[in-house]
Write a structure and sequence with these properties.
Elements lengths: L2 H47 L4 H17 L9 H8 L3 H32 L8 H16 L2 H12 L3 H24 L5 H8 L4 H35 L7 H10 L3 H30 L1 H5 L1
């Protein structure tokens, strides 16, 4: 083949590549412009629909500060401990109700994670054997997490009466929907090589899940479970507003009676509790995963 023909062929290949690359870049720029235009349009419509006003926001900040200052009673340096003890005058009752709230959150997280985790394998498209199973499971999880937990609490308070049981059931159902979706997405991102290995050795579907899927997804499952427990402590507080028990009922009564120092004391207890849970869950997660794996 003449050298000139080879050179001409190389130039054509380079030219075709440059043309294809330019066309790709043009499509990418067009796509980015369209996406930015849609986001800008949604932002404008949201500002108009919600009547969001920066002037109102800025002017209202001092009133917010005034409200927050009412949550803390006057505390002097000379009588610091006496003032704090007077602020937390009903600490024994609040701590008992806090324990009930934590137990509600723990039980609902445990049951919701077990059930949602089991359903997540059916809700993962790469693991479900039949599309109908995948589709039905996905829709059930959507219903469970779409209905707010406080609405579930209202339903169960009417059904089972006032008390922690209604709160546990409400948070559990919402946890099933949330954990099922999160776990399913983790399942869909796994490597299929271990599954093929178990399948090649004659393993059934349950053995594929046990020996090929769980070892890959367990660290993420644990991380999402700890995070969900933190959220459920907050949810257990909120459902107490509708009679589901726990420290949320005390907070609701304090706000209703305009006892702002009591509300501030309860909120501070809740914030401290969430911080301690976060620290403990972080330590436990690092222990389970292994600090060596985190350093790599």
């Amino acid at each position: 083949m003449p050298i000139s023909a080879t050179t001409e062929g190389s130039e054509n290949t380079v030219g075709n590549f440059e043309s294809a690359y330019d066309a790709y870049q043009s499509k990418k720029r067009t796509f980015n412009i369209v996406v930015l235009a849609i986001v800008a349009l949604c932002l404008v419509l949201s500002l108009i629909s919600t009547e969001f006003d920066f002037y109102t926001l800025i002017s209202g900040l001092p009133r917010t500060g005034d409200f927050l200052s009412r949550l803390v009673p006057p505390i002097t340096y000379d009588e610091f401990w006496l003032d704090v003890l007077d602020w937390y005058w009903d600490i024994e009752k609040w701590m008992v109700n806090l324990l009930n709230t934590l137990l509600m959150a723990f039980l609902s997280t445990l049951l919701g994670t077990i059930i949602g985790g089991g359903l997540s394998f059916l809700a993962a498209q790469n693991l479900a054997r039949h599309y109908a199973t995948y589709w039905i499971t996905r829709r059930l999880l959507e219903v469970a997490r779409t209905v707010p937990d406080i609405v579930w609490a209202l339903i169960f308070v009417i059904t089972f009466g006032v008390g922690p049981m209604a709160g546990v059931l409400a948070i559990m159902i919402h946890t099933i929907g949330a954990q099922g979706k999160l776990f399913a997405e983790v399942n869909e991102n796994i490597s299929h090589h271990p599954i093929e290995g178990v399948r090649a050795s004659g393993g059934n579907w349950y053995q594929e899940i046990r020996f090929a899927v769980l070892p890959q997804v367990l660290p993420n499952f644990m991380s999402y479970t700890f995070w969900r427990f933190e959220l459920n402590v907050r949810s257990a507080t909120i459902v107490g507003f509708v009679g589901a028990g726990g420290i949320g009922h005390d907070l609701f009564i304090a706000i209703q009676l305009l006892e702002f120092p009591d509300a501030g004391a309860i909120l501070l207890i809740l914030v401290t509790t969430i911080m301690l849970i976060d620290i403990a869950s972080e330590k436990l997660r690092h222990h389970l995963v292994g600090k060596e794996a985190l350093k790599r």
